[in-house]
UniProtKB/TrEMBL annotation:
Protein's name according to its UniProt entry: ABC-2 type transport system ATP-binding protein
Record carries keyword Ribonucleoprotein: no
Record keyword Nucleotide-binding present: yes
One Pfam family here: ABC_tran
Domain ABC transporter span(s) in chain numbering: 2-227
Membership in a protein family: Belongs to the ABC transporter superfamily.
Length: 236
């Protein structure tokens, strides 16, 4: 389980997030929605130990990320692309990640096949399309067979077949009793994939709950989203 309690972060005098609190339960896909600049990235960076909060806690299985014994075996994450050096091949990148985290080398071939990159494993990352780079980032996230997945815009650059593939992947991952936190701005895809939602606006959580409860009384998730994040109708 992911537990975020009272998370607050300022950048100078600007409040990035204020008193953010929500939980992400195992066995379900939780969607994390919000306008640009709402605080999604700040929350995820703190959760993954890439930034420090001014107040509050962000725990994965009861521990902050920095205190996890085997981080990659506990949490698989995708933030801002694959993180691979452009001159390395896909296989070399994943082999390095596996060795540095005590993961068997056999997992490299397995995840390359799982994300559909087996045929280009020997190609340099610099030649990859945006969608291929996303698939490589997902391969790295899956490498340690983690109990938790934290993904930021994972379908960015994927073609329709790739979008269907990752939708099935995340649903199956959650069905296995694992925890999935998915940040995306694509409403239609979130409506197809998420079981639960956390909606954030201007650095604060405005609602949480099952998809059906959040969208109740609205024709679509998009309508519910704008009603929650822009009640004055300035973006309509």
């Amino acid at each position: 389980m992911i537990e975020i309690v009272g998370l607050t972060k300022r950048h100078g005098t600007k409040l990035a997030i204020g008193d953010v609190a929500f939980t992400v339960a195992p066995g379900r896909v939780t969607g994390f929605l919000g306008p640009n600049g709402a605080g999604k990235s700040s929350t995820l960076r703190i959760l993954l130990g890439l930034d420090r909060a001014d107040a509050g806690t962000a725990l994965i299985g009861g521990r902050p990320y920095r205190k996890l014994r085997d981080p990659l075996r506990t949490v698989g994450s995708l933030l801002e692309g694959s993180g691979a050096h452009r001159s390395r091949t896909a296989r070399a990148h994943l082999t390095w990640v596996a060795r540095s985290n005590g993961i068997p080398k056999s997992r490299v071939g397995q995840v390359l096949a799982e994300v559909g990159l087996a045929d280009v494993a020997g190609k340099r990352v610099g030649t990859f399309s945006l969608g291929m780079g996303q698939r490589l980032g997902l391969a790295a996230a899956l490498l340690g067979e983690p109990e938790v997945l934290v993904l930021d815009e994972p379908i960015n650059g994927l073609d329709p077949d790739g979008i269907r593939w990752i939708r099935r992947l995340l649903k199956e991952y959650a069905k296995g009793g694992r925890t999935v936190l998915l940040s995306s701005h694509l409403m239609s895809e979130m409506a197809e994939t998420a079981d639960d939602l956390v909606v954030i606006s201007a650095g604060r959580v405005v609602t949480t709950g099952p998809l059906g409860e959040v969208t109740a009384g609205h024709a679509s998730l998009e309508e519910a989203f704008f009603a929650l994040t822009d009640p004055a109708g300035r973006l309509s």
